[in-house]
Amino acid sequence: NRQIVVQTLPDGTLTEDNFALEETPMPTAGDGEVLLKTILMSIDAANRSWMQGATYRDAVKAGDVMATYSICEVVESNTPRVAVGDIVAAEAVWADYVVRPAHKVEKLPKVDQLSHLISVYGIAGKTAFHGLVSVGKPMAGETIVVSAAAGSVGGYVGQIGKALGCRVVGIAGGPEKCKWVVDALGFDACVDYREAGLFKALRAECPDGIDVYFDNVGGTVLETVLALMNEKGRIACCGAISQYDTKAPTGPRNLPGLVVVKRLRMEGFIVMDFADDDAKAIRALQTWVRSGQIKVTEDVVEGLENAPKALIGLLAGDNKGKRMVRVAAD
Ligand code: NDP
């Protein structure tokens, strides 16, 4: 059984030297436990933020096997709740096999493609839906801006926004990604934050100002967007990826001034807060996927041993759509 340990915590930018691949004896399931074979592991910006300290979950410390959300097959079961061969979701670790208490795993429905349970019907799609609909509360005709627009959450935010009848403008890194966001995902426009002049470029694409900002990045991009928000605008604070992989985080300088003057509402959320509405989110997402209004975008990296590279690459902007690692065939 292979597992990947966080050998040392990063001092600034995460590197492959922070990780070590270890061979360990095959674990066995005790009373009320199940032995799981990992099929797919979600690779998230959050993996890096957990290394910064405790948040909505425990910190990942030096010596820990990296935590992850996985889709697994049950290979040994000491409980009537799940059977060998069942497909489950679990808070797991970067490893081929993992033992979990049976009550901590979620039996998954049969689907055509397992990877969709990590992308559009998984954390990415649910975060986009709940954050936009319940926190951002857009109305048809309003303008939505979303950062990390070519990423997993951002891509769904924009497509949901279009399905709800809004003007949607993305922010992403580089001309190629920006073109893909418009051509493949159907955004009205996408501006490159790595180019100078983000304020002017965004103002040109948002002639009626910005009503809803779905913030995945924080930092200077948030500072720029704040200046273009309309009165009574809403900012759904989903994440702050620009602050996770650096020694020198930079917050916006115009807070809380512009929030006061423009009567803005800034609200943070964690996808689990809306678990009671998950079934509603999945139904809506299924409808849009079937009608072609939502394109499922996935970025699958092969092999457990490549998980560190996959995370480092995600933080550097290598991915388009939901990044995950395939550990075993399903
Ligand atoms: P993504 O698939 O969106 O990938 C991250 C993207 O962020 C990269 O592709 C990169 O694209 C962009 N990025 C990296 N560094 C910067 C930077 N300094 N400034 C601007 N953009 C940057 O990853 P995730 O879906 O895992 O995460 C997206 C966000 O959603 C994160 O902030 C994460 O913490 C948050 N999240 C929050 C949840 C919640 O419950 N609140 C649940 C899930 C995710 P580019 O090339 O465009 O720079």
Automatic annotation (TrEMBL):
Record-linked InterPro entries: ADH-like_C, ADH_N_2, ER, GroES-like_sf, MDR_fam, NAD(P)-bd_dom_sf
Assigned keywords, A-Z: Oxidoreductase
Domain Enoyl reductase (ER): 12-325
Domain of life, per lineage: Bacteria
MF (Gene Ontology): oxidoreductase activity, acting on the CH-CH group of donors, NAD or NADP as acceptor
Keyword Oxidoreductase on entry: yes
Protein name: Oxidoreductase
